[in-house]
Amino acid sequence: MSRTPPPEPRARLDPARVAAVLALGPSRWRPLLELYRAHSARLLAAYADARAHQDAAAALAPIHQLRAASGSIGALELADTCRRIEAALRGGNWPAPELEEPLANLVAQADAAVAAWLDGRAG
Amino acid sequence: MASPHSPAADTNRWRIALVEDSAFDAALYSAWIEAAGHAAVVYPSAAEFRRRLGVESVDAIVLDWSLPDANGLALLEWLRQGPNAGVPVVFLTSHDVESDVVAALRAGADDYVAKPARAGELVARIEAALRRTGNASRQPAELQFPPFRFDLRQRRLYQADSCVETTAREFDLLCYLFRRHGRIVSREMLLSEVWKMPGQVSTRSIDTHISRLRKRLGLAGESGWRLQAIYQHGYRLQRDEPDAAA
Predict the structure, then answer these.
(1) Range name among A25-39, B4-18, B225-239 with the lowest pLDDT average
(2) Rounded to a whole number, what is the distance in Å from the CA of A100 to chain B's nearest CA?
(3) Looking at this predicted complex, what is its ipTM?
(4) Shortest Cα distance from B94 to chain A (angstroms)?
(5) A2 in a structural domain
(6) Chain B residues interacting with chain A (CB cutoff of 8 angstroms)
C-alpha cells in the first residue's frame, strides 16, 4: 500500500486569508510574511520561556498574539490551538500536555507554509 | 451646525489610529487601511496612546481589547470622558464572546470586529463608523460651519455669503482645521496631511499661514471661531462659545 504524501505546505494556510495578504501587492505582502515568520518565532520563544518559569501571566500575551497573527495569516489549526491554550490560561490553568505539545510543530508548519509562499513567488 | 464631511477637499483620506500591541497585526491592519487610501497611526501600548492622543488628532480609532498595559475597555472609558469623546471607536478583539462585545458597545464602542479580521470588513466598518458619527460622508458638496461655508466642488470659501479669496493651500488648511475643530492638530500633521511634504517645509510656514488666516477671517473670536496656538503641540480651532452668564 502506498503511503499518502505529506500535505503541501501552502495547503496549511487558509487561501482566503492568504489572498487578503497577497492582494496588498508584493511590496507589502513580502515584508508582512517575513514579519510573521520572525514574530511567530519570537512569540513561541516567549511562551516557552514563560512556561519554563511557570509564569502564567507572562505566557498569556505571547500566546494571545500568536493566536491573532496566525489567524490573520490563515494558519487556522495553529490559531485554534493558541485559542484553547489561551482559554486554559485565562481559566487559571496550564493547558493539558496534549494541547501544548503540538504547539512548536504547528508553528514550524506555519512557518514552512509561509516560507513556501515567499519562495514560490520569489521570481 | 456643521454638515458631515470628508477629511480633505481633494481626497477621502482619513487618519486612523490603531491601538495594537502585536507588531504583526499592527502591520497587517495598517497595510489594509493604507491600501484603502487612509493613513494609519500605530500606538503599541495604552500609555503611548494616552500620551500621544493629547497632541495628535485622529478621525477614528481601532482599539485592541488586550493591551500589555491596560484593558481596552478601561482605555475606551478614559477616551469617552476626554476631548476626543466623539471620535468613533471600532473594537478589535479575539474575545468574541457575547458578554465582552456587549460590554464594549455599552462602554461606548461604535462597532467591533472579531480577530482575525478580514480586510474588507475591517475597513468597511471603520468607514461606516465614521459616517454614522458624522465624521464622514460620501462626496459631500460643501461644509458648513456658520458663518463659513466651503464649496468643495468649486473649492471656494464663503463667509456670510461673501466669497473669500484663498489660495489652494489656504483652502485645504482651513478645511483640515474646521473638520477637526475642537481637537489639537500638530504642525507635523499639517505638514504631512495638508502640505504633503513632511520634513521638507519649515513649520514657520504653517505659523505664517495661520496668522494670516486668523487675521483675515476673524478667527480670533470675531467670527465666532477661535484658532489658538497650543504651546508645544500645534493648533486648535474651536467655536468661541458665548459666555453662558451673559
Answers:
(1) B4-18
(2) 20
(3) 0.83
(4) 7
(5) no
(6) 21-25, 27-28, 31-32, 35, 66, 68, 94, 115-119
Collect all residues of chain B within an 8 Å Cβ-Cβ radius of residue A67: 94, 115
Q: Confidence class of residue B200 from pLDDT cuts 50, 70 and 90?
A: low
- Which chain B residues are closer than 8 Å to A16 by Cβ? 118
Say how many domains are in chain A.
1
Quick check: is A38 in a domain? yes
Domains of chain B: 15-132 (3.40.50.2300), 142-239 (1.10.10.10)
The distance of B115 to chain A (nearest Cα, Å) reads 6
Q: Give the pLDDT band of residue B5 (cuts 50, 70, 90).
A: very low
Task: Write the CATH number for A65.
Answer: 1.20.120
Residue-number span of the structural domain to which A108 is assigned: 25-120
CA B161 to mean position of chain CA atoms: 27
Question: Is position A4 within any domain?
Answer: no
Where b means 16+ CB within 10 Å and e means fewer, B201-225 reads eeeeebeebbeebbeebbbeeebeb
The pLDDT confidence band at residue B69, using thresholds 50, 70 and 90, is: confident
Write down the H helix ranges in chain B: 23-35, 46-53, 72-80, 98-106, 119-132, 168-179, 187-190, 203-217
Residue A39, domain member (yes or no): yes
Among residues 47-66 of chain A, which lie with CB inside 8 Å of chain B?
61, 64-65
C-alpha cell at B200: 521638507
B7 cis-preceded (ω within 30 degrees of 0): no
Q: What is the pTM of this model?
A: 0.70
User: A20 vs B53, which has greater pLDDT?
Assistant: A20
Residue B96: predicted pLDDT: 61
